[in-house]
Description:
The complex is a heterodimer. By secondary structure, chain A is an alpha/beta fold. Helices cover about 30% and strands about 30% of the residues of chain A. In chain A, the strands form three sheets. Chain A has a six-stranded mixed β-sheet, sandwiched between helices. In chain A, α4 (about 110-120) crosses α5 (about 130-145). Chain A is elongated. Chain B is an all-alpha fold. Chain B has one domain. In chain B, about 80% of the residues lie in helices and about 0% in strands. In chain B, α1 runs antiparallel to α4 (about 70-80), α2 (about 40-45) crosses α3 (about 50-60) and α9 (about 155-185) packs across α10 (about 190-210). Chain B is globular, with a radius of gyration of 20 Å. Chain B starts with a helix and ends in a 6-residue tail after the last helix. Chains A and B meet through α1, α2, α3 and α5 of A and α1 and α7 of B.
Amino acid sequence: MSIISARQLTRGYGRRRGISAIDLDVPEGAIFGFLGPNGAGKTTAIRVLLGFLRPRAGQATIFGRDCWRESHHIKRDAGYLPGDLRLYPWMTGRSALRIVGGVRGTDLTAPGRDLADRFRLDLDVRVRRMSRGMRQKLGLILTLAHGPRLLVLDEPTSGLDPLMQITLADELRDRAARGTTIFFSSHTLSEVNDLCDRVAIIRDGTIVADEPLATLRRRARRTVRITFANGAAPDDLRPPGFLTVRRRDGCVWTCVMDGVAAPLLAWLAAHPVHDLAIGPPDLETLFRTYYDFDDRASPVDPPDGDAPVGVPS
Amino acid sequence: MRGLFLKILREVWLGTLLIGLGLFAAETLFAFILPQIQGGIGTMLSQMPWVRGLMSALLGTDVPDDMPTQMLLAIVWVHPVVLALIFAHGLFLGTRVPAAEIDRGTIDVLLSWPLSRRAVYLGESAVWATSGVFILLMALAGHLVGTAITGVPHPPAAHLAMVLVNLYALYVAVGGLTFVLSACSDRRGRVIAIVFAALVGSLLLNVLGQFWAPADRVGFLGVLHYYRPANILSRGAFPTADVAVLLGIGVVLWTLGLVVFTRRSICTV
């Protein structure tokens, strides 16, 4: 069952581009990464889904309810962390929990305190005296404290130090394991790579990819370094179609490989090899092609002259 | 809703209390001073006729040289300081949602709570309406204290109540305008500027109407035209038509604000 569903969702800002004919399905219990460069339309899509913006066309539902007309019902079971979080400056963590608890009709003090311990936040400091990271932590606590079925997080790690980023990732994994659906936007690949089951990539307001991360990994190129045995790699040796040689250094080839390793191993069986190193799927390059490609190029086929891929670690 | 009211009250109680105390002080001071300078006012009116026009515009009735005490006490209710404090309170509360929330970037947090926009608007309006009663009662208290200190008999309670109802209706009309403009806007300052301009325009119409017939003919377009405490205090007649017009304006504009706020897209990017 889809927790979030959008069909042909469109929203612009006059002459400025917003989102155009977006289709999305976020299954229950998934950690769904919503990726795109700055200005691609991530926040606009989230704002439409949460009922801040009225769609110009299309329809979106969360929990089967219309995102525009029934937004306040949806928010009972959802937690939202805005991208550019601005909290009321007079608030302390404690008063914020009291107020949000009052709005939600439940006492959030105990879960809020637990989360504050986990994120190492003093709940008695006023927001106006907090650093950006502290405000982000408080925003996360207020988003998580009521134990929502759906978390919508717009660039949740911004402002957090690396340790807190790990804490947040652990918290999100725990919640996902308990059935919470997590939809988060990011322009940082590593976050998505570490956490997500599924990824949608938005570019210029349209979805250019929406697939399980495992599929993207299979599709992503890998860096391969082949060290042939002496004399096994003559200059006229032609690589197979799935292998692009970036550099030949005597009997050492540095290549990029499309697809899985089995065909490579089969081809190498005919050519004595001294050493072979196959890197992990290079998602960064794959995503960069989604971000950068123009209409003439395939998103999985980076143009020649693309930055050389790194040597596998 | 409890959390929403907690939040609103936390944000407005101090401002409301200060404005209430300001009104109390201003009313006390004016009710204390004006009867003592009654003779001086008569002299000033005869020497500076334009002041008479200004006072007539504020009081909504012709001002004679020998101003009776009841009319003098009516000045207390139209003094620019008093009106400015009351309108400041209306602007302070009426522009909170959504204009001020968008302006300071907190609307995302507010709208992330499971509250309908209608509930948010009604919650803000409820606090605005009740705190309006509070500040007017503070003004009344100041008036009574001031007259008690000077020993001047204050107007009959029924007349004072009518003035308060008329003033509250004016508060509602200005508030309605503020709410609808706020609902349409993303900038608090812009709303305040427009409402302020409308009030100054209304006052100018009243003033010009004293000297210039064409301005007098269109004087009904300004809200201050429907607030005439001197007439109430001197005649004791309830200004039904004035109150009805002001409440009508207020309710229509407030409702329009509700419709706009519940239907508009909110964007802080």
